[in-house]
Amino acid sequence: MSNYSRVTRVLIGDGANSAVITALQQIKKGDLVLVDTNNAILTATTAAALPKSETAYVAMGTGPGKFIKSLAIQGPTMEAVASQTYVAPIQQSIALGYNGTDSNFITTPGTEYRLRVHIKDFSRPNWQRPTIMDANYTVPTGGTSIQAALALQSLILAEDSGNSFLKKRIKVEVITDATVAVGIVGSIVSPGSKEVYAPAHGLAKGSYVSIDGGTYQISKLFGTDSFILNAPYQGALGELVSAATAIAVVGIKATGIPVEGFKYIDEYEIINFSAVLTEADDSNPSQAAAPVTDVATMVPGEGYWKQVFDSEMTSRGYLNGEFDRVSYDAKNVESYVVEDTGYGSVIISHNSVHMADFSYRMHSPVQTEIYIPEGGSQGDPGTATNFIAVLNAFTGRFGFVAADLS
Predict the structure, then answer these.
(1) For the chain, does the N or the C end have fewer beta carbons within 10 angstroms?
(2) CA angle 82-11-300, nearest 5°?
(3) Which helix (H) or strand (E) element contains residue 9?
(4) What are phi and psi of 385, to 5 degrees?
(5) The pLDDT of residue 178
(6) How much is the pLDDT for 321?
(7) pLDDT tens digits, residue range 8-22?
(8) How many domains does the chain have?
């Protein structure tokens, strides 16, 4: 929910309270409790017995005896209580031609082909050109499908003025039905590099190798222990290099790469794109020269740590002036998000009721977002002393469905 339409307060637990807390002074970093207007700790029993006109607050521990509280949650003003367990993000993946089980990438000598990748940016104001990357290749006489696929991969990932925009956003690899030998012991290739170290590999220039499921061709040898690939490797560090032979069917697979932004500056992004192989003189992308298979549909995720971090940072504009600063190197307020952790969430939409001018009662829309690490006891309603069980007792009095983040 945008902070432009409502004030948001984000509270993040660490998964398990440090103890059964009976007084707010006992709270520690990462603890979550529900308190009344007198800061008395509410249990499932006392929360269920609160008068419907009563107000409650969620308190998050920031240190021994220190805490941040949500804005007042006045029962009758609650509009919605939504809960969501963690959903991991999935990068979109598209196969052209061979997809690992069937289809093929068939090329005709003398024909020019175009590999097009279209990154679907959210906004293109003032008729700006879409983010489209093309690679064209004419298959020579005697040329093969594997040669065409490798050439298109090399061209679309090629650097322009020392940089490759696509290389950092879309992983483009050639996939085949090759017979893959045992990995070369001690071989290593770094992400983004073409150079491979493979001691005593025994391979010749023009040979094919397999790395992390993708097929590459050796374009240059350096002694007996190193060689250069036709295109930069875009996989993970630590994958062994293996010889690849007996290639019969070929395809190109394009997969989104997680966007690595600058912490405290860039917001979380995930790549949404399309890819197609056509003959170069076909203006209609539906006239594909190779079958298109959606290998994986893009899923942004729910409770992914970068999403929670963005919510936390944005909400702080209303908490302690986080965004009043004009210098990027200013010290940032501590984040309570743990990297690479999945979070379940409970989001309460409610109103802050207060008096305005002329005795007018103002209802200001606010939102309380609560995040709990996946599998943490704070999100398990099965035990009455757990935070979510207490919160459910309070929200249940107003007809909202109980949350379960376990």
Answers:
(1) N
(2) 55
(3) strand 7-12
(4) -85, -10
(5) 95
(6) 44
(7) 899 999 999 999 999
(8) 2
146 and 236 part of one domain? yes
Q: Which residue has the tokens 């690595």?
A: 260
Token output for 38? 């007198």
Q: Is 73 helix (H, G, I), strand (E, B) or coil?
A: strand
Q: What is the pLDDT of residues 254-301, one digit of tens each?
A: 999 988 776 667 788 899 999 999 988 766 656 778 899 999 999 999
CA distance 251 to 241: 20
- Structural domain including 12 reads 7-87+303-396
Where a domain ends, among 280, 296, 312?
Answer: 296
Residue 331, token pair as written in the block: 């010290």
Q: Are residues 322 and 286 in the same domain?
A: no
Structure tokens at 55: 């107000």
Over residues 204-223, the pLDDT tens digits come to 999 999 999 999 999 999 99
- What's the whole-number mean pLDDT along residues 291-315? 92
In terms of domains, do 356 and 265 share one? Answer: no
- Please write the tens of the pLDDT for every residue from 384-402: 999 999 999 999 999 999 9
- Do 141 and 44 fall within a single domain? no
Contact 386, 378 (CB under 8 A): yes
**Rounded CA separation 36/64 (Å):** 20
